[in-house]
Amino acid sequence: MDVVGIALSGLRASGAGLAVQASNVANQLSDGYKAKRVDLVAEASGGVRVSGVSADPSPAGPAPSNVDLATEAVQGMGFELMYKANLKVLKTADELAQATLDLKA
Fold first, then answer.
1. Exposed/middle/buried for 10, CB within 10 Å: 0-12, 13-18, 19+?
2. pTM attached to this predicted model
3. 9 and which of 45, 47, 73, 75 could share a cystine (Cβ 3.0–4.6 Å)?
4. Residue 35 contacts by C-beta under 8 Å, 6 or more apart in sequence?
């Protein structure tokens, strides 16, 4: 897999993670709701893919769900950073391709 494909896989994975994290926050007050986690798997050729979404096994405690807003905030920051890093890789690859084309012109 080339660098663009690897970065795109990271964008897809971080987008899925942000969607699951947003769903967890939206459902934090829903009775019996179990927080979800994105399961990521490294590809042998490079990159990452979402292998599934699993329920967090931790107990709910006194709250209606087991969603912890502090955990969700940290997860959200991680996925946001992952998204920005992969976007930067794509931008750099684009700039490199443009510089190469400019040299040939």
1. buried
2. 0.86
3. 47
4. 24, 55, 56, 58, 65, 66, 67, 68, 71, 72
- DSSP H helices, 1-105, are 3-26, 69-104
Q: Is 91 helix (H, G, I), strand (E, B) or coil?
A: helix
Q: Go through 31-63 and write b for each residue having 16 or more CB atoms within 10 A of its CB, e for each that does not.
A: eebbbbbbebeeeeeebbebeeeeebeeeeeee
Q: Is 48 helix (H, G, I), strand (E, B) or coil?
A: strand
For residues 81 and 74, give the distance between their C-alpha atoms in angstroms, rounded to a whole number.
11
Q: What is the pLDDT of residue 104?
A: 79
Q: How many CB atoms lie within 10 A of CB 5?
A: 13
Distance CA(75)–CA(69), nearest Å, equals: 10
